[in-house]
Amino acid sequence: MTSPAFGHEVLAAVLGIRDGRLRVLLWERARDPDRGRWALPGGGLRADEDVETSVRRQLAEKVDVREVAHVEQLSVFSDPDRTPGPRTIATAFLGLVPSDADPVLPADTAWHPVDALPPTAFDHAAIAASARDRLRAKLSYTNLGFALAPREFTISGLREHYVAALGHPVSATNLQRVLTRRDLLAPTGETAPSGRAGGRPAAVFRFTDRTLRVTDAFAVLRPPAQAGTAS
Amino acid sequence: MTSPAFGHEVLAAVLGIRDGRLRVLLWERARDPDRGRWALPGGGLRADEDVETSVRRQLAEKVDVREVAHVEQLSVFSDPDRTPGPRTIATAFLGLVPSDADPVLPADTAWHPVDALPPTAFDHAAIAASARDRLRAKLSYTNLGFALAPREFTISGLREHYVAALGHPVSATNLQRVLTRRDLLAPTGETAPSGRAGGRPAAVFRFTDRTLRVTDAFAVLRPPAQAGTAS
DNA sequence: TCAAAAGTGTTGGTGCTACACCCATGG
DNA sequence: CCATGGGTGTAGCACCAACACTTTTGA
Known about the structure:
2 copies of one chain form a homodimer. In chain A, strands 1, 2, 3, 4, 5, 6 and 7 form a 7-stranded mixed β-sheet that branches. Chain A has a 3-stranded antiparallel β-sheet with strand order 8-10-9. The first copy, chain A, has 2 domains: 7-132, Alpha-Beta Complex (Nucleoside Triphosphate Pyrophosphohydrolase); 142-207, Winged helix-like DNA-binding domain superfamily/Winged helix DNA-binding domain (Arc Repressor Mutant, subunit A). Helices cover 21% and strands 28% of the residues of chain A. Chain A is of the alpha+beta class and 231 residues long. The first copy, chain A, has helices spanning 51-60, 124-139, 155-166, 172-181, and strands spanning 5-18, 21-28, 38-39, 42-44, 70-77, 88-96, 109-113, 153-154, 185-192, 202-207. Chain A is built from 4 helices and 10 strands. β1 (5-18) of chain A pairs antiparallel with β1 of chain B. Chain B binds a DNA duplex (27 and 27 nucleotides) through α4. Chains A, B: This is NUDIX domain-containing protein. Chains A, B: InterPro entries: NUDIX_hydrolase-like_dom_sf, NUDIX_hydrolase_dom, WH-like_DNA-bd_sf, WH_DNA-bd_sf, WHD_NrtR.
């Protein structure tokens, strides 16, 4: 059991919709190695914390943690040569920040389009891509939209978030019906003022639930009966 | 960047259907700590390998690797006190062995029902539970059955595998239709002899594909068109 | 009164579950 | 020819995408 020891870092791909695009939070490295390239926030794991605690601590230094609506583990990146110098293993996380949260960012930190990244440090581009893919997959069978959208929104506003995140057209009509059928949306009773060009004012909604819920589990091999689930 | 270094181990929850139950491969610890308790196979990460390479190497010592039909990463277990002694972080994997593979096992190693584990070492019970849950979820929206079932099987034989893995009844009629509709099954043309009590001989099938395929992605927010996918 | 934007009604199609029925074998 | 188990036909339901239509606003 005398196995070697390795450095361990925690990295977070924090995604959010900003200016109509799906973006990831990156900071520009001021020092070698990879000076001038853009990196994911994160850093070394401390002796007294587990990786979940660590990622939240590290994010708190970039973003007010209360603004991060969802955090989940992606996977381990462990190529021996993934970084120069002493070997470091990384546990990668996906974080999501709603678009009405506008955290004050340090000067070296900015949101970059996840589909058009600037030159990135180490293997961080692969981590960002894996975060993007995880988000896209989960949007379609969970209520994860709550972590991208603002607290309150109109259906067409929500639709734009889904379009930006998924990268393909989404029908507002059917989006509303799917989310309503599954009881994910609740009307607030308010309406949003119509724009400069007129038009009927939109009803305002919020998500009924702001924690992750799988809505399509066991689509095929569903456990029998479960009477009462449909409400 | 002078963060501390930690031991890193790789652990595999190898699941398979044995004697009609979903079981996990465990070995009995002969030494303290946790002597006499049952542990998942695995061990320290070497300096020149990544975690995926490592888990396959470690499994080769217990099971002929060619018999492991599927391996995937679960998550990191990193509680500072998860093991006594110097801190060790674990990357946990799910491995699946088809029921027609019968690897020769070392004397200290045995298959145990995953829903009725013997006393387990460290946090290994939680890892086994997370492997079981991952398997159950993926069975319902992927072709992952190929990694549990034998190479060739009858529908009712396959049904028993799903029942054992999921823990709830599954209809053979509908199982066949669902898997056929998605082109996951191919008839071999052979039939299996009927049992002592008679009955029509069953047709023999195999999975068309023996690598993981997601069959239900984007059930809700499906990308538009994709002409020709249905074939 | 017209254009714009939001929201609802409706229709046709697909996939799924349940159940009834037919098929092939051993005794 | 009967019991046993395998396999298919089909009816009804739920869900869903597309599209036409109605509603409510600003100019």
